[in-house]
Write a structure and sequence with these properties.
Blueprint lengths: L1 H5 L7 H20 L6 H33 L7 H25 L11 H27 L2 H8 L2 H13 L5 H24 L1
Helix pairs in contact: 2-8, 5-6, 6-8
Amino acid sequence: MLVGYIFKQETFNFVKITSVIGLFIGVLCVTLNDNPQTSESTKFQIILLGDMLALLSALCYGIYSILLKLKVKDDSRMDMKLFFGFVGVFNIVLLWPSLIIVHYLGLEPFELPPNKEVWFVVLFNCSISFLADFLWARAMLLTSPLTVTVGLCLTIPLAMICDVVFKFKLNSPIYFFGAFLVCFSFYWINKSEQDEN
């Protein structure tokens, strides 16, 4: 929201600020509920490193969203197929050399999937990732970067529902409260955006 305000893509109002604070508290509740499988001595450092990397990733993602909205402005001004084609080309040109480097340094061996099942998982994941990115870009151009970014946090209550349905696992009350805050914040940010338009 702050990056969007700096680039004049978002406006501040009481509902948005309250909703973002509620969202932050909800995500914090879910994060505090996590229990990584590590020893106590390294637990704090691992959690802190993971949280710092997640915040850095969120900042980069927010800047990317805002700049895309700033430059494109409207859904009709961008050819999605061409855009994602260039994203693929840049990934191949810029990321493949790093894979080769880490392979030859012995940090991470590069190998093809060993069987048909793994090939299926990889190809299915590629398809779903492409669809998710395509829908994210369309939604961001049709609404706002803040609405779409907060909408991505709805994976938290969805994960909670999947835990109950597929694993028969009930999470702690703090997790439920955090998931409720995420849903509530998404609703109010959407309502505020709708009122502004």
